[in-house]
Amino acid sequence: MEPTRKRILCIEDDDDTCQFMTCLLELSNYEAKTAKTVAEGLRLANSEPFDLYLLDNMLPDGTGLELCLKIRSLDQHTPILFLSGSAQQEDRQQALDAGAQVYLSKPSDPEELMRVISQLLLN
Q1: Residue 1 domain-assigned?
Q2: I need a surface site. Which of 8, 19, 33, 72 has the fewest CB within 10 A?
Q3: Sign of the CA dihedral 60, 88, 44, 74?
């Protein structure tokens, strides 16, 4: 029997980044699902189990920070990784305070990103 692939929900509004992340995750044998808004991400998080949430910070209907807080009110344990264009220390600290495990800035090295995802999914 084939082992179940880890499921990752990527909430990202940029089409190119979304496609890149989906390809990168699937090439690394993860199952990727995407959402482009806070509302869609929250709906999916409420309706399906995921092993990791990958959040952008700036979304059309809110912020990844708001989404992170909502996810944490439902799920205390699933790792949350921010991948955002904002490299401000304040944004990073707010995300970690809201319950994220890691905050990476875009553009991120794909090998580094996959290493971090792998580590988060091992814990």
Answers
A1: no
A2: 19
A3: negative
Contact, 84 vs 105, CB < 8 A?
yes
Q: Please report, for the domain that includes residue 23, its CATH number.
A: 3.40.50.2300
- Are β-strands 80-84 and 102-105 bridged in parallel, bridged antiparallel, or unpaired? parallel
One-character DSSP codes across 26-58: HHTT-EEEEESSHHHHHHHHHHS--SEEEE-SE
- Asked if residue 18 is part of any domain, the answer here is yes
pLDDT digits (tens, 9 = 90+) for 14-48: 999 999 999 999 999 999 999 999 999 999 999 99
Count of residues making up the chain: 123
pLDDT at 106: 87
What is the pTM (predicted TM-score) of this model?
0.93
Give the separation between CA 45 and CA 15, rounded to whole angstroms.
Answer: 20
100: containing domain: 7-122
